[in-house]
Design goal:
Length: 309
């Protein structure tokens, strides 16, 4: 079903650390929350400047030209450049930035799908914007006891070629037992229906268990999806019937500086960016440090473990 053209009303801006009771209730019911003006204009400018610097200065000549795929037009990414990126800053190309014979057709700064996955540790501007008391307070308001940042990314959603991302659950790709992932998604530019904003299946986190996970193959030959026996919900989550039904998606159009919280079981997606405007965002994910995170997961912790928020 196509998404509604009507975005949900944004939550009030953060005035105190943590979340208000009404914000917590909205997130609990719907599985997401929009918080405008969560990051200041000066912070957004600093992150955009850092992103531009990274995009224009990485060495193209020695890059393996690894493409990021959402799995719709080709198999999910699984090469060594990707699998060893958990403690590095690496660059993954849009599939449509290349011609049929493999030649790059866009300038490198306009050809990258995403930058990941250790910005929150290796980039001073992104580290400063991630590991904040405000974000720690939000995590604890959501019930985290030992919140750990396990990955961070800039997703560029480039003009004209920014790929569609089909409905998915973040806990499929960042699996703990029991599931615990929450995404902190921050708009660095305005995100609209025209340039590929997010859409949410409100409440689906309570009726859609995590039924598969993205793991390293046992034979070492890349990655695969494997089933999760019985499907899993986070510990203590109040669930409801209705899993497997056709979901209705609500657009989440937001302005730069908005923080979007996304439950790891929530089905969400974004459409292709066919416009002439970019849709740059920064996102990091938090998991419960005390939950099991095993060696099968595609993303493995750096030496010293995942970063405490």
């Amino acid at each position: 079903m196509p998404p509604s053209r009507t975005s949900p009303p944004p939550s009030p801006p953060l005035k105190t650390l943590g979340l208000t009771p009404s914000q917590q209730a909205f997130f609990s019911t719907n599985g997401y929350l929009l918080i405008p003006n969560a990051l200041s204009p000066s912070t957004i400018s600093a992150l955009l400047a850092e992103t531009h610097h990274l995009l224009t200065t990485f060495p193209l000549a020695t890059h393996p030209l690894t493409k990021f795929s959402t799995g719709e037009s080709s198999t999910h990414i699984s090469d060594d450049y990707f699998l060893t990126s958990g403690d590095k800053i690496r660059f993954f190309f849009e599939e449509d930035a290349f011609s049929a014979d493999g030649a790059l057709t866009k300038p490198q700064a306009l050809a990258i799908n995403k930058i990941g996955h250790y910005l929150h540790a290796l980039s001073p501007p992104f580290r400063a914007a991630t590991l904040t008391p405000a974000h720690a307070a939000i995590a604890r308001a959501l019930g985290f006891r030992d919140p750990r940042v396990l990955q961070s990314m800039v997703i560029c959603k480039q003009p004209e070629i920014g790929a569609r991302v089909p409905p998915h659950q973040d806990s499929t790709f960042l699996y703990t037992d029991p599931p615990s992932a929450v995404g902190f998604w921050i708009a660095l530019e305005d995100a609209t229906a025209e340039n590929g904003c997010l859409s949410f299946a409100a409440g689906s986190h309570r009726r859609a268990p995590v039924e598969s996970r993205f793991v390293r193959r046992a034979d070492g030959a890349g990655t695969e999806f494997v089933g999760v026996e019985g499907g899993r919900f986070p510990e203590g989550l109040e669930t409801e019937e209705g899993g497997g039904r056709e979901e209705e998606y609500t657009l989440g159009e937001v302005q730069a500086g908005t923080l979007v919280l996304i439950h790891g079981n929530l089905l969400h997606k974004s459409e292709r960016n066919c416009s002439s405007k970019g849709r740059m965002i920064y996102t990091f994910h938090v998991i419960e440090g005390g939950n099991e995170y095993d060696a099968r997961n595609w993303l493995q912790p750096p030496e010293g473990g995942f970063t405490r928020l």
